[in-house]
Amino acid sequence: MAKFEPAAGRGLHPIEQAPIAEIRAVQLERLAWSLAHAYAHVPAYQRLFDDAGVHPSDLRSLDDLARFPFTTKTELRDNYPFGMFAVPRDQVVRVHASSGTTGKATVVGYTQSDIDMWVHVYQRSLVAAGVRPGDVVHVSYGYGLFTGGLGAHYAAEQFGCTVVPASVGQTARQVQLLVDFDADVLCATPSYALVVADEFRSQGIDPASTSLRVGLFGAEPWSEAMRAELEEAFGIDAVDIYGLSEVIGGGVANECVETKDGPTIWEDHFYPEVIDPDSGEVLPEGETGELVFTSLTKVAMPVIRYRTRDICSLQPGTARSMRRMGRVAARTDDMLIIRGVNVFPSQFEELVSADPRLTGHFLLEVHSQGRMEGITAVVEPKSDAGGHDAIAADFANTVRQRIGISVEVRTVEPDGIPRSEGKAQRVRDLRG
Ligand code: DLL
Q: According to the model, what pLDDT value does residue 6 have?
């Protein structure tokens, strides 16, 4: 396999503007390597491939990937902690882990060359977002086992930025650092960025008055309405950054600031497919389904056809040759089925963000109403928003019209909804 290319430096890497045929050729060569690497060094992959009756040598074209088996979190959990590694443990220079809601953490590992590749693709993300060497980059993603903080940190530092490793929490102090250090770039979950904006206002500072120019927001679903809210609040360009630990971390895909039309997938390193989540069939470009990734250059922990549970579509390239992903509207495992209607928390996020009388914070309480299931949407009117009864009635009406279900709406006083410092928790399940 070709060694992956040196870090992007200050401009675009040539592959970002290469003809599609060239990208496909690179992908095929790397895919053959990655399948062979996984099969040779990870017993779990060998078993999976053998059970499916396929061998890495069966790959002749990119379409042949569809013959290979999927992997899920289950394989990672069953082989906890290091059983999915394809190299001896002493070649693994770092691990990250996500705790998940149930059971054991999902552990991922990196060789030094994996870290270098991550830095490289993340630097493409920084370039896409309009970050420049010399910028002050304030990182409010959590540092630690979560990939958000350290991923952004190493990439921005090696890009020539001044990194402020603020991590999450102590929001009053974050505001002071953003102001005193003249930050240019904010990296945070969009829900935490809203918390930061609120903190600015409560200190009597207009968040739009800072030197911030760009926000890289991701790690959780967010909407165009929330983009508008964040751009206006801070006076910035807000771009969408996507990633997941199993594939590398943040920076698998990033939106280009000049088009803001969905994250460009760095697909010479992460090969995307969108499948029908029920049948497993590969869907054509443009159709919505579950996003699946195969790592093409990862050494310590290759992932083959890893099912992300994220629902979106693949779109042709615009600002770059590589394909884009539509906004991740939802995850298959976040789906609530309320009286037969499929409902996603992100649909509420969009409606909450679009109502100027509400803060962007909300909570969905799911409960049993007799034998039926129901949702109470807890929303937070701004302090000057006016009568809560009218706001609640309007919001219930909007939900009925736009999502097609009836919900109870409960309003709370400002700050009544617990703030999250990382990924927002939107659902409280009160079913027994
Ligand atoms: O959230 C990595 C990351 C860090 C991404 C920083 C962006 C910025 P995990 O904790 O493994 O990794 O969670 C991955 O988060 O499968 C999606 O469901 C969700 N997610 C990540 N980015 C976005 C996004 C990091 N831009 C899971 N839009 C993914 C919607 C996102 N959902």
A: 43
Give yes or no for residue 71 CB within 6 A of ligand 1: no
**Coil, strand, or helix at residue 306?**
strand
Q: Is the CB of 242 under 6 A from ligand 1?
A: yes
CA–centroid distance, residue 139 to ligand 1 (Å)? 15
pTM, to two decimals? 0.92
Average pLDDT, the chain: 94
Which one-letter DSSP state was computed for residue 372? E
pLDDT at residue 432 greater than cutoff 80: no
Q: Which residues of 262-295 are buried (b: 16+ CB within 10 A; e: fewer)?
A: bbbbbbbbbbbbbbebeeeeebeeeeebbbbbbb
Find out whether the beta carbon of 250 lies less than 6 Å from any atom of ligand 1: yes
CATH number of this structure's domain 1-331: 3.40.50.12780
Instruction: In the chain, count H helices and then E strands.
Output: 10, 20
How far, in Å, is the centroid of ligand 1 from the Cα of 194? 17
The answer to whether 362 touches 222, Cβ cutoff 8 Å, is no
Q: For 213-247, how does the pLDDT look when each residue is reduced to its tens digit (9 = 90+)?
A: 999 999 999 999 999 999 999 999 999 999 999 99
* DSSP code for 97: E
Q: Which CATH architecture has domain 335-429?
A: 2-Layer Sandwich (3.30)
Q: Does the beta carbon of 254 sit less than 6 angstroms from any atom of ligand 1?
A: no
Residue 1 has pLDDT above 50, yes or no: no
Closest C-alpha to ligand 1, atom 15: 219
Which stretches of 203-282 are DSSP H helices?
Answer: 224-234
The residue type of 156 is A
Rounded CA-CA distance 403/104 in Å is 35
* Residue to probe by mutation, ligand 1, list 137, 242, 252, most atoms within 8 Å of CB: 242
CA distance 100 to 25: 36
CATH topology identical between 1-331 and 335-429: no
Q: Output the pLDDT for position 4.
A: 45
> What's the confidence (pLDDT) of residue 421?
86
- Structure-block tokens of residue 160: 């020539």
Domain residue ranges in the chain: 1-331, 335-429
Percentage of the residues of the chain whose pLDDT score is greater than 90: 86
pLDDT digits (tens, 9 = 90+) for 27-40: 999 999 999 999 99
